Amino acid sequence: MAQLTFPIVAGELLVDVRVNHDASSLLDIQSAGRSAPASVVARALLYTGSNVTVIAPGILTQLGLIPCYYTATHGIGGLVQVGVYRVSLIILDASRPQPPWFTRPDLLVMDMPSPLPVDVLIGMDVLLECRLLVDGPNRTFMIDF
Asked: Does the pTM of the predicted model rise above 0.70?
């Protein structure tokens, strides 16, 4: 089993991520003879308070993604409309860019309805596919996958 270890910073579980088109779309782009878009690097917060991973609209726009569909979701401010997008998501340690990486090649995400201090909230849809160990006394956390 592979493992990534990160420090707990200011009481938050922050990780480095790369976001791109979903794997199937990337293959279609390459087979059409076009260059695949570069991944967008961002900071993400592991957030057990959301069932779904959410991504800042700026990242989705930068990748040129269009929503698969729209839906309503409950946020802190009540019911809001959001776009749902298909992406690939990689969790990695940017200070050591070689694998292991936790990869989700095809993930449905929502756009972030309001600005947050991070660009990505990694929800339970991703967290349920790995093991998360928080070592509070040592101020670290590990993701096993």
From this structure: yes
